[in-house]
Amino acid sequence: MGWSEFIYFAIAALSMWIAGTILLYLKDRTLAGDILIVSGLATFSLFIILLWIKLGHPPLRTMGETRLWYSLFLVLVGYAAYKRWGYKWLMAYSVIVSGVFVLINILKPGIHNTALMPALRSVWFVPHVTVYILSYAMMGAATISSLATICKRESVERNPLIELTDNLVNIGLGFLLLGMLMGAIWAKAAWGDYWSWDPKEVWAFITASAYILYIHSRHSGTGERWNQWIIPVAFILLMITWLGVSYLPAAQGSIHTY
Amino acid sequence: MDSQSKREQEIALKQIIVISAVIAAGFLLQIFTGSVVQEILAAPVSIILSAAILSLLFIKQGDLLQQCGSARVSLILIATLLIISMLMGIIPGNTIKYSWPFALIYLMILVNLSLATGRRLRRFRLWRDLKFILFHLGLLILLIAAGPGSGDTKRYFMTVREGDTEWRGVVSGGTEVEELPVALALLDFDMEEYPPKIALIERRTGTSLPAGRPEYIDAAAGNRGVIGEWSISVDSFEYPKMKAPVAHITVKKGDGVTINGIVSCGNYFQPYHLLDIDSVYSFAMTYPEPQNYTSHIEIYTKSGLKKNGTVEVNHPLTAGSWKIYQYSYNSTMGRDSEISQFELVYDPWLIPAYIGIVMVMLGSLLLIIKGGESNGVE
């Protein structure tokens, strides 16, 4: 089971997610909708497991492989948030964005050879990357939620979405910091130094600082409108860390490019 | 109410001016004295500086110190850090991390963190303040170990030949050779490799086919596969010690054409071998890629310690405050390399760094569990 079969799994999972989300909108409480969404998640996970078995190592190394996990986690987070707070739009948004990433993977899958270089053979490999991708998915959801708050006409302070956004950013930051520190422990074992200001590390640091700025800004009584604006800006920095670093002139020779 | 918020604004402005002045002083220092030389932080400076910063935890805070440790000063400092680290991320080949402005921002953050943590420690209540303390005290310890502590870190590269013992190392980032208090004897160097792969290539350019989406087949005896319109079977595969890998393969095209012969990627003294199928295309073998490499070594220290063990990538060996990392080998000779290269790191601040890391990780777990609920901030 490899990338050539991805299209069947992806289309099956996406159709179930879309149908399930439409059902959620049509009816207030629907078991069929839940079943469809969960089945879609199971189908997508099954592909990842089969790919993992085929490669002989966790599919977390190439860009295409990390996009795979992002597509899955995004829907998972969207669904969990829908279950917890009842926001259907968040579910619909996750499905759409996940669909975009699935499409990229169908058109331009990251097919690389399966050899895993020695530095990547570590117990920290799987938790370091999965925790990061999980955090990215939460921050993605938080960004949409903050933009929804900013665009609403009513007073920003009274918007009930603020609580959701704040929860997502706090939990997302927890995962982000865990990913960063597990990376530090791994780097110590692999390269002899837990922090070396490698370009990817610099941008991960910038991203974390931006979210930490949001949290401190909120606690020091800065205006809520200003706080909400930090989140989309931080997300742009996150995207640079994840996808953009390899294109930056400052990042040539980064040890994080595989 | 209005006059109070105006007063607040004035204070914030003053804080921004003072912080900017410190950074400006950093620029002047940079211009007149050049970058920070990490060696100036070496003990006893590192110890004195750390003790001074940690003593702020216990000092009684007057108006001025209270302001230095305030949440708004943290906010201004984080924003400053964000800007300077963005410069670090954008400007190619910069040395901002060694610059005075960066060092002074780092120092201000340490002072701010220590004061803020101290204030919270004095009215500590477990469930209310645990997350705050884990994050801030953990970060303070980690930043002290990584900042002032960095002056005491020493890094060397050492190359050892199989059967030899070596005690001289080259300073990391330099060329001077020094005699170290640690000696390494390389008993054996081992390397595991992934099997090389069979590829269909265009001979003139060397591109693997199908172009853009190349396909490969593991060179292992009995293995079969399809590349483009060709089906391939690997009849035999040999890879004896000190020789290049060689595979005998049979390839069949859809219309019945069958060709067989050997392919080899060659090595440091044997030439490669292609199996030509027409005037343009050939079958070829890729180089085997390293999977893992291991050195069996014996460590001797001046203090009389003797230790036997293996070092591999991701698994360093510890001897006192020294850690020994597998760094490299003779890559042209691959698994036949008769040398192994190590990185030796002396870091007496490693344990505090790990304590800090673990504390912040525990804080992160609490953050995940608690979400954005109130942090007990006044």
Q: Tell me, briefly, the overall form of chain A.
A: flat
Tell me the overall shape of chain B.
Answer: elongated
Largest beta sheet of chain B, briefly? 8 strands, antiparallel
The ordered string of helix (H) and strand (E) elements of chain B is HHHHHHEEEEEEEEEEEEEEEEH
Distance between the termini of chain A: 23 Å
Average predicted local confidence, pLDDT of chain A: 85
**Share of helix among residues of chain B?**
25-40%
Strand element count of chain B: 16
Protein model, in words:
The complex is a heterodimer of chains A (258) and B (378). Chain A has helices at 6-26, 31-55, 63-85, 88-107, 125-151, 161-191, 199-219, 224-244. By secondary structure, chain A is mostly helical. In chain A, helix 2 (31-55) runs antiparallel to helix 3 (63-85), helix 3 (63-85) packs across helix 5 and helix 6 (161-191) runs antiparallel to helix 7 (199-219). Chain A is flat, with a radius of gyration of 19 Å. Chain A starts with 5 loop residues before the first helix and ends in a 14-residue tail after the last helix. The relative contact order of chain A is 0.09. Chain B is an alpha+beta fold. Chain B has three domains: 3-152 and 351-370, no CATH class; 154-192 and 291-346, Tick-borne Encephalitis virus Glycoprotein, domain 1; 195-288, no CATH class. Chain B has seven helices and 16 strands. Chain B has an eight-stranded antiparallel sheet with strand order 13-12-3-2-1-16-15-14, with no helix packed on it. A four-stranded antiparallel sheet of chain B has the order 5-4-11-10, with no helix packed on it. A four-stranded antiparallel sheet of chain B has the order 6-7-8-9, with no helix packed on it. In chain B, a hairpin with a 4-residue loop joins strand 8 (246-253) and strand 9. Chain B is elongated, with a radius of gyration of 30 Å. Chain B starts with a helix and ends in an 8-residue tail after the last helix. The mean pLDDT of chain B is 90. The chains are: A mainly alpha (258), B alpha+beta (378). At the A-B interface, helix 6 and helix 7 of A face helix 4, strand 12 and helix 7 of B.
